[in-house]
Amino acid sequence: MTKTTIIIGGKFKGHKIKLVPSPHTKATSSLVKEALFNTLGASVQNKIFLDLFAGNGSYGFEALSRDAKQAYFVDASLKSFQTLKKNHQKIKTGFRTKHYFLWSFYSSFKKIPKKPT
Q1: Which numeric CATH code is attached to 4-21+29-111?
Q2: What Pfam families does this protein's entry cite (predicted)?
């Protein structure tokens, strides 16, 4: 059985996304995610969201659900990268722009464009 979590707010609220099938990856609780996005509020709208150590992409998909302009997902794990792609395909949303990178945290700062694409 595949474990899942849900998008907790925005236009895709309630959509289930898979967790990374790895003992080295731990899902963020919905309470923590909700606290973060309640704090950020509408400041996410039309902004670029950087999801470092993305795992299953929970934060980035949450930001896109709340009208972020773009999301960059960065993770060095192949399992995470594959899970991110599956989650995006499963949701089949109108997410405007998303970018997936199989990079380390440190190399991501050199590679992510300075201006949005």
Answers
A1: 3.40.50.150
A2: Cons_hypoth95
